[in-house]
Structure formats: C-alpha cells, structure tokens
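Let us practice reading a record.
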Amino acid sequence: MPGPLTPDFAPWTFDTTASPEQRAANDDRVAALRTAGHAVGEGCVVSDLAEVDADTFALGDRSYIAAHAHVTGDVEIGADCSVNVAAALRGRVTVGDGVRIGSRTSILGFDHAFDRVDVPVFRQGLTSRGITIGDDVWIGAHVVVLDGVTVGAHAVIGAGAVVTRDVPPYAVAVGNPARVVRDRRTGERPAPRRADPDADRARRVEQFGADALAALPGLVERAFDGERYRDAPGAAPTVRAHCDAVELAALAGGVPAGLTRDAHVDRLTALVGPDGRVPEHGAEHEGTAAAPDPSHRADDAWPRGAEGYHVLSVGYALDLLGSALPAVPGTGATPGEVAARLAALPWGTNAWGAGSVVDTVGTALTWARETGVAVPDGAREALVGWLVEHRDPVTGLWGAPRARDGWREPVNGTYRLVRGTFAQWGTPLGLGRELTDTVLRHAASGVLDPPRVTACDALDVVHLLRWARRCGAEGYRTDEVADVARAVLDGVLTRWSADGLAFAPSGPRRTRGDTASGVPEGIPSLQGTEMWLATAWYAADLLGVADLLGWTPRGVHAPEPRASALS
C-alpha cells in the first residue's frame, strides 16, 4: 500500500498515489521554478525532498525529479526523463528525451583544477567542458559520468560504471573505467585493439605529402578573385588570405598565380603604413574581430588583433618573396616600457591575447634586427628577462587555467608567445618536463577530439610538445607524446581533400581575433589548409616521419629558428 512519501521516492507513480494536497504542493513547486526563470514543462513532478538550485534549469514535459536528487549548475533535461533517488546532475549537463538516470548516479559536468602544487586545490577554481547525453539513454544506478563526456543516443550504461570517455550511440558500456562491450543493434563486440598502429602510416604520410603539393597551386588559384585573395569562396578578401596564399605557394615551390612576384611584393608593401601598421582590407571589417584592436596606443605602442598578426603574416610573406617590411611597428619601447606593458597584459583573464601580443613583439624585434631598424638598448633583454621571471615553474606555461575552458587559454597563449620569441630565436628555456606534463593533460581533456578540434588547438599542442623536447624533455613520456602525435596526424590524413582543409572540421567554431577567418566550420580555407599542413608536419616530426612528407612549413609556422634576436 502506498505510503505518504511514495510520490517523492517513486514519482512515476505520482498520478496514482499523490494526494490532492501533494498535487497542489507539486504545482506550487513547479510554479516557483518557473517564476525563478526556469523552463519547466507540463506534467512534471519535482519532489519536495529534491534540491534544485541551478543557475539555469530546464525540465521537459512529463519528466520528474525524485527525492534527494541534487541539481546545480546549468542543467537541461528533455521530455519523458527520470532523475531517480539521490542522483546528482551538476555543472553543465544536457540530457535528451526519454532518458532514465538511476538512483545515486552522479553526472558531473565540471571538475576541480588541481595542477598547481603550491596552491591549495580548493583555491584553484573549477573547469567545465560539459556533458551531453543523447535521447533514449538508460544510465543504471551508482554510475559516475565525468566532465567532457558525450553519451550517444540509445546507449545503455551498466550499474556502477565510471564513464571517462565518450560512449557511441546504441553502445552498451560497463565497468570502471567504462568500456563498450557490445552494440545494441547488431550484438557485435568491439574488435580487439590492433598492435603496431604505425604499420601503414608511413605509406599514408608519403602519399599525403605528394597529394598536398599537387593540390596547392589550384587551391591558391581558386582563392584569387582577380583582385584580391579570399580565405574561401564567398568570404571577404583579407590581408591574411593573401599571405596564406604566398606561404602555400612557397611550399609548392612557386608564387601564387595571377600576379608576378614583383606585383605580390608591391601589393603587400603598399599595405604597410609609415608607422609599420597594416590595417585590414576595407571598411566592412570595422567592428569585427578582424579590425584593429581599438585599445592599442599610438606611436610605438604594440599593435594587436589583425594589425598584430600582420606583423607576422605580411612580414613572412614578403620574406618568402625575397623582400622585407618597409617599416616595423612597436619596436620603440624602452626596457622600462617593455616591462610595464608586459605586466599590463591580461595574463589571468586572456592568456591567449597576452601571448599573441608577445608573438607580435618578438617577431617585430626579429624583423627590426634583420632590416636594421633601431631598437632602444636593452629592450630585447627586458622582454626575455620579464618572460623568464614570470613563467609558471610548475606548469611551464604563462597564464593560468580558467573555469570556462581549462588549460586552453594558457596553452594557446604559451604557444603564441614561444613561437614569436624563444622558438623563433632558437632559445631553449628549460622546464621541458613540466611543459610536457601540462600539454599532455590539456590534450587528454578532449580538445583534440573530432569533431571539436580546430587547427589552432592542435597546432598549439604539437608545437609545444616539440619545443619541450628541446627544453630538456627528450625521451620523457615518449609513448604518450607519440599517441597524441598519431591522433593529430591521423586526423589530418583522414580529412585531407584536394579542396584543402577546414580550420574547424565541424562543431562549435572556437577561434579568436587574428586567427578567425570568418569562414564557417567545415568549409576548406586557405587558413585552415596552411595551419593543418603545418600541424601535420609537427606531428609527423614528433613521430620521426616528417621527412616522408617531402616539404617543411614555410613562413609563420616554419619549425626551425629564424634568427637570434639577442645577438
């Protein structure tokens, strides 16, 4: 016989067991959630003994939350779902329709940062990549689903499983860590892992290298509209697109079709203002990420945004064409000004942005040295000294992780900073093992997983792992480094086509400022092709097979040091 708490502990019986008073109380709870701004559908049951304290919360029609369930963060639950007794949905969690979540299961769409050993864990903040659960999923009792996981539609997770990686649709997964044991549609069990994953890779790498060289001239030619270069059909013409065309053509041993070498030089040189700054083409870019950063100061203040990246792209394009920048911006700062400007960069809130500014400044100092532009005495030494002093000795990075995207910002920023200074100048810096540890931890977070991976994220990882070897990590964690390199390289080999490569294969586009072309994800582009080819080379080099490609990146992403800016 039903007891007074039956509707709370077995809410699927609510229609047959709830008293009029309990029905009225449930209506009040639902109304209160709606008043608080949450989206609660029709026919929902939320136990008075459940704790729903979410920042944002949505509950689809005919779904219920049982007693002692705990819901916090940003949680969206579809229609006809059940959250059973003492289940926890916390952090960023999206649940499809018809999902069953067993009692005492924890779905944790967040994690604690704990990488620093000099700071208590509770002071290091949270990270969140989120959890997505598809339609018609059954999750048994006492299951734990960890941050970053996607569970495909129609999957079944056995009781007590600990889910640490994605589960395919229709899969049955059990154990700790959870592993797929069969497909619900076919009953087939997954094939055993093959030994010797590199058996066929050398042949594929060699073929890919030849195919890329053969495709590049046509790809670059299609990007020229008779007047200027576009990253992809339909995109606005950009300065970077012209420079990417020069780099790709140089990889194939020529110059972009449509203009002579001298005409390319004349056009790029004409873009450079008397102060060395290169604005983006046309007024159509005003107010977009491609526009000059309005926060930069006049005179010799460091350029940012597209203007900052043009120090790299235009400078290297002219260099590949046998010319040079006629003027170099941002090289007039005194040692004191250098230190002050570095300290003012947003290392704690936008490590990527801070690193990109240092990339620009380091490259500007390189061009200044090579073209004879005067630089205040001690300015280069001040830049290096400040960076050495402010590097995190525990992580090997500049900047700190953030709750929103974990290590992505400081890894991105460190790559940009290193590329434009120490790697460009051939200066190893130590902390190679610490850097390797952090970058491998970042790679394991899912940032390299298709379809979410972007060329920027993959290049950051393989470039820094290679530089870390030169900073004292040779022979350190080699198997794990090789696994990351294989994953990155295989992704490029699989996606390559004669039309080139998209910056972001699919999924949410995750780019910033001067690396964003404005081309939708999934569309091949000059930027995507140039960056992925460089990424493939770095990954192949980590595996010792880069020579099979038959080419080496040219320009901005060239792997060998450019010059010693301190000599």
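A brief commentary: Confidence is low (pLDDT under 50) at residues 283-300, 507-516.
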